[in-house]
Amino acid sequence: MDKRKLECPERELREGQIWDPAHLRRVAEHPCYSPKAVHAYGRIHLPVAPKCNIQCNYCIRDFDCIHESRPGVTSRVITPQEALDRVSEVIKKFPNVKVVGIAGPGEPLYNEETFKTFRLIKNKFPNLYNCVSSNGLLLLEKLKELREVEVTNITVTLMPFILRSVKDLHLYHP
Q1: pLDDT tens digits for 63-76?
Q2: What's the DSSP call for residue 125?
């Protein structure tokens, strides 16, 4: 495996080592990725990203109900400062929270509020993991900013490559 492809200048992988041990630890402590972590660590999703760069037919962002708790669903969008205040309150009550996630309600990478929020949280809570869920269309463009705010985990929704599927799933398409 070519170490240069990993583009991880802060850590050097040993010869023959495929995975970065620090990243494996982050995955093991992330309640979205690890069945053991789901009962040991908490997470908080922050609805700071209202705008989206595509319109998926399956995305219903106006649905909000007391029994709906998936990322991206919210009663209202909050500001980066409100997000920091909310994280501070939650950490006081639940010190086992390890992950701060931004998954919408729009596309996080299409909103500067996402990066402002992560900067505020990184400054006050440097030990929390910053996590983002994205449609992936802006990943290359925003990679430098994602690194600067120390996003540790990125979930990318898979997009179809068959034009017929794209037309069925998206209102805005090529």
Answers
A1: 565 555 555 567 78
A2: -
